[in-house]
Amino acid sequence: FPTRRSSDLKDSQPCPRFPALPSGAVFAPNLACEKNMAQNSNAFVQTFEKGLQILEYLVEEKTVSVTGVAKRMGIQKSASYRFLNTLRLHGYADKDQHNSYRLTDRLSKLGRGVVPKREFYNIVAQFLDNLAKKNKENNGICNLGMWNGKEIVYMVQSANDKYMLLTVGRTVPAYCSALGKAVLAYLPEEALENYIQRTEFAAFTESTVNSAERLRAELRSVREKGYALMDDELYPGLKGLAMPVICGDAPVRYAVSVTQTIYGPADQLVQRMLKPLQETVQDIVAAMEIYNFGQ
Questions:
Q1: pLDDT beyond 90 at 162
Q2: Per residue in 187-225, pLDDT tens?
Q3: Residue 182 and residue 143: Cα distance in Å, rounded?
Q4: Residue 64: φ, ψ to 5°
């Protein structure tokens, strides 16, 4: 709010919360006074204010009802329901079997700078789009994959109108995908052995990793090189280059990959895209640290 002197206020209405100021005194209104002034201008949204008041009431009471909020706020029950349901749909409140609403931990996470997954994935999508532009002439796609304890789920992806079997929400086996091997290489030994023991190494092509011994050897190579390769293992000609997303001491759950069709050695994908991939993973790790995502 701009600072003004009392001489500038001769023709304006004084704020009722402030006494008359002597000539030359500095007028610096507090938030309460500024709010009163804003309410009479077009710089104030009353509906949003009511939503904030209901959110504050929810923080104070821990559990509220539609009727209770309506009485406390002096609004209709239908309006109370819409406010509370909006908070629920945005993840700030839960509704139990008694139709009572209680606060979730999303508000505290926002206060700590923890970005919800949906918003974080939007940030990652921008990084992946930028990475894909560096491989645009080769019609590849860039992916963020998540380890769910059994396989890899495609969570975020650059524009993809070519690889319909590798779209967001779909899964691929961890043992024969670049994303999967990038994560498996950094699992704790016990978790890795549990995965190997329960995995049937189905062969999709002649190049698919088809045994525990071969997988262990490839994972050792991943740890040595810092990146994983998929070379014709899911489909003939399909190559993948991936790196794990390692953020502090947190368990590795994510990896980033570049995927494209190359009928020939996968070395050209490594030579062309390894450095841009490394830079993208570094950007994603930095974003995770800034926003406390996954911590």
A1: no
A2: 999 999 999 999 999 999 999 999 999 999 999 999 999
A3: 13
A4: -135, 165
Q: What is the 3-state secondary structure (H, E, C) of 153-222?
A: EEEEECCCCCCHHHCCCCEECCCCCHHHHHHHCCCCHHHHHHHHHHCCCCCCCCCCCCCHHHHHHHHHHH
> For residue 42, which amino acid is it?
N
Arithmetic mean of pLDDT, 61-67: 93
CB-CB contact of 69 with 80 (8 Å): yes
Cα–Cα distance, 240 to 230 (Å, whole number): 5
**Residue 48 to residue 89: CA distance in whole angstroms:** 16
Token representation of residue 25: 């005194």
In contact, 228 and 181? CB cutoff 8 Å: yes
pLDDT (tens digit per residue) in 77-131: 999 999 999 999 888 899 998 999 999 887 877 776 666 677 788 889 999 999 9
Evaluate if pTM is beyond 0.90.
Answer: no
**Which token pair is 141?**
């796609």
C-alpha dist (Å) from residue 73 to 15, 51, 56, 62, 189: 25, 10, 11, 16, 56
